Fold:
Amino acid sequence: MRTPHAAGNDNEHDSAGSYWIDAVQRAMRPAPAVLAGYTIATTARSARGISGDLSDVTVDSQRGYATVTVGDVMGKGLASGVLAANLLGGLEVFHHEPPGEAVDAAETATRDHFERASAFATLFHARLRFRDGRVEFVDAGHGLTAHAHKSGVTERIPSRDFPIGLQPAGMPRLPRILYLAPGELLLIVSDGLFELPGASIHTLTQLAGELRTVVDLQFALTEFLDAAGPDLDDDTTLTAIHRNA
Structure:
């Protein structure tokens, strides 16, 4: 005999599930990393409680590098949050691999999930080498990274690969390299940045240039996002890497 249950329990279960997924996402967000010669800071907020953005910072002091990830699964809410967690989990499994190999492996591991959901994700995945500021990275359809040079010039780094879930099987990713000189900054964001009040096509490069000279990078990132008000139109993530002068 089927046991009856009170009306509303399904909604309560859904709410409880959403609460725990949101709690897991918050726990997975990287803490500020103050390293020998570098500061890495991240701030993130969701539009609907559960974010389709993903971000991670993994420091390997023994090998002398940090792995930095920022991504954005299409859509919002629970489905996007689950896909983001799957992709981030795949990248963590292969975090010791170079960026190109790690992204290829994580994409292979999650391809079925994205295909069944008819979804895709944009992704920036990089390895920073401490001794010389070398950044090896893969940009999978993301294109939302800015390099603020010490000269005052800030350039936006375009993407050259397809998003996760859209790259043809067997087509390798194309790792690229840039160098962060002392006093320079790399800013990686999700596209929610451009949904903030007053944002424009130039917001990414302007913000990177301003962050390059702040005293407290984590405070500046958090203050910037808090200034957008309590309600956001889209999930928004900002990660900055500063090489100290």
